[in-house]
């Protein structure tokens, strides 16, 4: 170290300080790739190119259920420009795959179990040739009657070698003989929603000289995808590499593995790079959707509105394959009573296979469906008791130290009452009579056909909860490396940036810990240690925790020589705005000077405390942490047309700690808007198992015109002591809560039960008496 690396302070006149740059935790640091994405220069998988590129196309089943009599690929193989055609016979390794349960064939061989199931894949020298060749594959089917009603799946012939029942959870908590003075019942149905990613699936496979293959994909869990691909190709994992390209938005597991796997097979077969860019229709047919759910509820309460017992039956339609249905069912059963104290709970939950499109992980899976049902029950209870809907909820809310129906004690902050009071007390928006008529938007949009006299305003509430990280014994671990050289820090971590802001968070962590402004996050590939899937706030907690630990190890390496030289411990030194100072002011130097040209690096892991599977009675410490949200919805309903306009959603959320204010607000607003779509428009219709209108004209996503005023009225920063930084996941819980709040408001406006999502117009029509 040079003599100038550390100097004692003197009484000389201090130089004027430069304006501090925004950095570190708590600052609204912008996304590093924001400019490139705004200008359209950010590289996505669909933009990739390689020398000698071939194009792929996949032949998919037009039937929901059929027996395959024969597959004739000869006509396709003979077409000019076609380089390869692959079917189930060409899969050299494991023929099955799946996110949770590996029960899904790469290509259907004997039986087709859902509309859009892959049958064959083609590689050709032009995308049009590939599509025509795929269409030229002749498949003879014996069409079978599909099983599309999940209630019929219990008695139907097995649709899969593993049977129709994927999982059954019988939750038993408390006294089965307990009864309340007041009882309300309800039957609820939740429709099928699609993740509807901004960009449809795309990928590029490039063969390697060693006989392996590299896949360039928008994967959200690259190591799991690599292991699945290697098993399918009959290769060792070290001969398959996945490079993560830009992910164009992800509200679920982004990539359909049935889309990825044919790419590598074709590249290995042809020895050429192969690219596939799915159409929107193929995207709808290929990836998984939210579980349609049937829920039956009975709530018991005393005369004061305190809950005594909840009984429920929850049936999840998993579609043709299991995927992550077991996890979704565990969340649904565990949170079936909501963020309320329920001394006695008896829940039966099932997930079954049908011939409907496969269901899987979509933000808030399981928790969203039950939230809509238990909040409807709370509205019914309030009406029967003559209580304000907010008041009956306040009398039952969960708090830290209470016990969930699964027997797990809530040890994390649970400020549910504070959240509900915040949205209840927030001023209501002005009524239409208080605003000029030309500024009043009728339900149905600016040119709504309704009459002002038919419009009724309603106010409703929703309380939601979700779990963070994996559950039931999932080994959550992530590894990160932090390197510093020449005043620049680099983070290597296989945590995929899916829009949740991990790369920004990683930069903030290193800036805060090391005082270095310039921080780069390296691209993700499977040569790095695994970091797990990008869902349920995992990367904020687990990967962010790994980055923090690695950065602190580098900090110790940086400060130890200085501490030794001045005879003090590293705990007495602090780094602020790129400067290292001691507690007594004797030491003052910059990080760059202290580095003295050296390169420092460290690698660390983060693994949260373990969980356990639910036992035979649905009991167990299954979750690492919980997050809560309260939303008050204000809607206008045209009771003659049944059209609904969401006027305002007031949101209060339990966030643990705000790490990036702007980014956090954007995540909450996006989640709330997604909830509006679930409540009012998004319904993937599948008559007899066939996806009707698999496009964005037939599947109605909310647009900017549908987005209501979103008021974030309270962010409760009560840090979770077991979480790095004390922060909680923020994206999923508003998605879970918003549909329930909107349905509650429509009930208040119309007096109708509203027991189905999305809310159909006929459910909001009030007929004249």
Q: In words, what does this structure look like?
A:
The N and C termini lie far apart (89 Å). This protein is an alpha+beta fold. The model is unreliable at 1-19 (pLDDT under 50). The strands form 7 sheets. A 7-stranded mixed β-sheet has the order 3-7-1-14-11-12-13. A 6-stranded mixed β-sheet has the order 9-17-16-15-10-29. The chain is globular, with a radius of gyration of 28 Å. Strand 23 (579-582) and strand 24 (588-590) form a beta hairpin. It contains 15 helices and 29 strands.
Approximate shape: globular
Fraction in beta strands: 25-35%
What is the count of helical runs? 15
Main beta-sheet strand count, sense and barrel state: 7 strands, mixed
Identify low-pLDDT runs.
1-19
- Number of beta strands: 29
Q: Whole-number average pLDDT?
A: 90
The proportion of residues forming helix, as a percent range, comes to 10-25%
**Which sequence of strands runs across the widest sheet?**
3-7-1-14-11-12-13
Distance between the termini: 89 Å
Return Rg in Å: 28 Å
Name some characteristics of this structure.
six-stranded mixed sheet, 26% strand, 29 strands, 15 helices, Oxidoreductase, 769 residues, single chain, disordered N terminus, alpha+beta, AldOxase/xan_DH_MoCoBD1
List the helices and strands and how they pair.
Layout: H1 34-39, E1 54-60, E2 66-72, H2 74-77, E3 82-86, E4 96-97, E5 104-105, E6 111-112, E7 118-124, H3 127-136, E8 138-143, E9 165-173, E10 182-190, E11 202-207, E12 213-217, H4 222-233, E13 240-244, H5 257-270, E14 274-277, H6 280-286, E15 293-301, E16 307-319, H7 325-334, E17 344-353, H8 367-385, H9 389-394, H10 416-425, E18 455-471, E19 478-485, E20 488-493, H11 502-514, E21 519-521, H12 538-565, E22 573-576, E23 579-582, E24 588-590, H13 591-595, E25 599-606, E26 623-638, E27 644-654, H14 661-680, E28 709-716, H15 732-750, E29 756-757
Parallel strand pairs: 1-14, 10-29, 12-13, 16-17, 20-21, 27-28
Antiparallel strand pairs: 1-7, 2-6, 2-8, 3-7, 4-5, 9-17, 10-15, 11-12, 11-14, 15-16, 18-26, 19-20, 19-25, 22-23, 23-24, 26-27
């Amino acid at each position: 170290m040079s003599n100038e690396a550390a100097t004692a302070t003197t009484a000389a006149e201090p130089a004027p300080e430069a304006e501090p740059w925004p950095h570190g935790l708590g600052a609204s640091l912008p996304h590093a790739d924001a400019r490139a994405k705004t200008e359209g220069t950010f590289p996505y998988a669909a933009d990739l190119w390689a020398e000698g590129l071939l194009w792929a196309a996949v032949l998919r089943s037009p039937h929901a259920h059929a027996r395959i009599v024969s597959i004739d690929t000869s006509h396709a193989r003979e077409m000019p420009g076609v380089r390869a055609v692959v079917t189930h016979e060409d899969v050299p390794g494991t023929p099955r795959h799946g996110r949770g349960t590996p029960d899904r064939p790469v290509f259907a061989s004997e039986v087709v179990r859902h509309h859009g199931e892959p049958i064959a894949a083609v590689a050709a020298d032009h995308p049009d040739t590939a599509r025509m060749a795929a269409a030229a594959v002749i498949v003879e089917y014996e069409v079978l009657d599909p099983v599309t009603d999940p209630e019929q799946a219990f008695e139907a012939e097995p649709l899969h070698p593993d049977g129709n029942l994927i999982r059954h959870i019988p939750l038993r908590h408390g006294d089965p003989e307990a009864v309340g003075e007041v009882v309300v019942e309800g039957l609820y149905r939740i429709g099928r929603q699609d993740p509807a990613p901004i960009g449809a699936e795309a990928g590029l496979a490039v063969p390697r000289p060693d006989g392996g293959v590299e896949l360039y994909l928008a994967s959200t869990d690259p190591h799991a995808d690599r292991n699945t691909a290697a098993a399918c190709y009959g290769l060792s994992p070290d001969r398959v590499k996945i490079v993560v390209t830009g992910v164009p938005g992800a509200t679920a597991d982004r990539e359909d593995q049935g889309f990825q796997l044919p790419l590598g097979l074709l590249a290995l077969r042809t020895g050429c790079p192969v690219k596939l860019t799915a159409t929107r229709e193929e995207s709808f047919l290929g990836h998984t959707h939210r579980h349609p759910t049937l829920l039956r509820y009975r709530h018991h309460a005393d005369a004061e509105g305190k809950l005594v017992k909840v009984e429920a039956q929850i049936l999840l339609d998993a579609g043709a394959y299991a995927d992550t249905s077991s996890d979704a069912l565990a969340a649904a059963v565990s949170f079936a009573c909501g963020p309320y104290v329920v001394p006695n709970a008896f829940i039966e939950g099932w997930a079954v296979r049908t011939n409907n499109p496969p269901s899987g992980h979509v933000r808030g899976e399981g928790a969203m469906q039950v939230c809509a049902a238990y909040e409807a029950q709370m509205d019914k209870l309030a009406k029967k008791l003559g209580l304000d809907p907010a008041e009956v909820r306040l009398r039952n809310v969960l708090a830290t130290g209470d016990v969930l129906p699964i027997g797990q004690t809530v040890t994390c902050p649970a400020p549910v009452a504070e959240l509900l009071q915040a949205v209840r007390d927030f001023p209501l928006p002005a009524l239409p009579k208080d605003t000029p008529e030309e500024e009043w938007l009728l339900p149905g949009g600016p040119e709504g056909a309704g009459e002002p006299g038919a419009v009724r305003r309603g106010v409703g509430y929703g309380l939601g909860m979700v779990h963070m990280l994996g559950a039931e014994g999932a080994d959550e671990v992530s590894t990160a490396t932090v390197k510093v050289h020449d005043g620049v820090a680099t983070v290597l971590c296989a945590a995929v940036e899916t829009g949740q802001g991990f790369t920004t968070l990683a930069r903030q962590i290193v800036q805060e810990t090391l005082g270095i402004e310039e921080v780069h996050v390296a691209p993700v590939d499977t040569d790095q240690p695994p970091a797990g899937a990008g869902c349920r706030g995992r990367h904020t907690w687990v990967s962010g925790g790994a980055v923090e630990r690695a950065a602190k190890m580098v900090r110790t390496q940086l400060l130890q020589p200085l501490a030794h030289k001045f005879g003090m411990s590293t705990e007495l030194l602090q780094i602020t705005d790129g400067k290292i100072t001691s507690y007594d002011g004797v030491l003052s130097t910059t990080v760059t000077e202290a580095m003295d040209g050296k390169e420092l690096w460290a690698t660390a892991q983060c693994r949260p405390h373990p969980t356990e599977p639910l036992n035979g009675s649905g009991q167990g410490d299954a979750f690492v942490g919980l997050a809560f949200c309260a939303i008050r919805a204000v809607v206008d309903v045209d009771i003659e047309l049944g059209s609904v306009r969401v006027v305002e959603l007031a949101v209060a959320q339990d966030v643990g700690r705000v790490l990036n204010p702007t980014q956090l607000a954007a995540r909450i607003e996006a989640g709330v808007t997604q909830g509006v779509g679930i409540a009012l428009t998004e319904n993937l219709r599948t008559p007899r198992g066939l996806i009707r209108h698999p496009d964005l004209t037939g599947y109605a996503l909310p647009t900017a015109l549908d987005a209501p005023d979103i008021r974030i009225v309270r962010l409760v920063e009560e840090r979770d002591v077991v979480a790095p930084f004390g922060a909680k996941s923020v994206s999923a819980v508003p998605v879970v809560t918003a549909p329930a709040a909107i349905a509650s408001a429509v009930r208040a406006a119309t007096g109708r039960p509203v027991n189905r999502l999305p809310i159909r117009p006929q459910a909001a029509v009030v007929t004249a008496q």
